[in-house]
């Protein structure tokens, strides 16, 4: 059952999902996902076949006191971390006009409502992705820093599924941390990323797009968002 949320948050969430569908048409949208096995909860995930985008939403009724920790958690499991903030959180700089708050450092900022503003490129009407201003190197630190952390989003049966697909046997009695260690040891970073994406795209969720099964013989279409990562 979808979680209760205020009208203020729903407005931003709806706009965020619409934009994610535009730039990542092949991705599955999932709401309310734990980042580190029952730790920080991510508001919205967009999961392509080999890309993960995580979004934290802060409406006009929220506070920013937890945002830095939430961004840190999301950056451990996502290729791109986005803070979708209500405009009331913007700060004014004497030199550059409006800028994002310091608490959003380390994330790409989308400001709601979308409007033309004088200041940093992030605070304007256009919601940007990496590489769309200042060159891809500007957001190089937003890439997936440690692909092995992404496995911490998975459930036990999903970890077992990855192990068995990788040819790792006798895993049914192992603990989750042991399964994760095996995956990190036996699979490359790229293989882990694709495996995690596959499990998330197929997972049954309380609030998400219908499951997507990519292993149907045909090559899934490439995500146009990939080109924006440099």
From TrEMBL:
Residues 211-230 are annotated as: Disordered. Residues 220-230 have a biased composition (Basic and acidic residues). It comes from the Bacteria. It comes from Gemmobacter lutimaris. This is NERD domain-containing protein.
């Amino acid at each position: 059952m979808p979680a209760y949320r205020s009208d203020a948050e729903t407005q931003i969430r709806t706009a965020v999902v619409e934009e994610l569908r535009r730039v990542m048409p092949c991705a599955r949208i999932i709401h309310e996902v734990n980042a580190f096995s029952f730790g920080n909860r991510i508001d919205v995930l967009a999961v392509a076949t080999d890309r993960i985008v995580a979004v934290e939403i802060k409406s006009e009724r929220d506070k920013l006191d937890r945002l830095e920790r939430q961004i840190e958690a999301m950056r451990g499991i996502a290729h791109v971390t986005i803070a979708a903030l209500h405009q009331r959180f913007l700060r004014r700089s004497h030199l550059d006009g409006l800028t994002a708050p310091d608490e959003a450092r380390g994330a790409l900022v989308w400001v709601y409502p979308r409007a033309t503003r004088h200041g940093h490129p992030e605070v304007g009407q256009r919601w940007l992705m990496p590489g769309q201003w200042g060159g891809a190197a500007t957001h190089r630190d937003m890439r997936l820093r440690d692909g092995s952390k992404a496995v911490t989003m998975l459930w036990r049966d999903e970890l077992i599924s990855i192990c068995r697909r990788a040819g790792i046997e006798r895993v049914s009695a192992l603990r989750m941390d042991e399964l994760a260690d095996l995956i990190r040891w036996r699979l490359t970073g790229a293989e882990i990323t694709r495996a995690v994406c596959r499990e998330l795209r197929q997972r049954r969720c309380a609030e998400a797009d219908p499951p997507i099964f990519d292993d149907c013989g045909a090559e899934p279409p490439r995500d146009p968002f990939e080109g924006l990562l440099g």
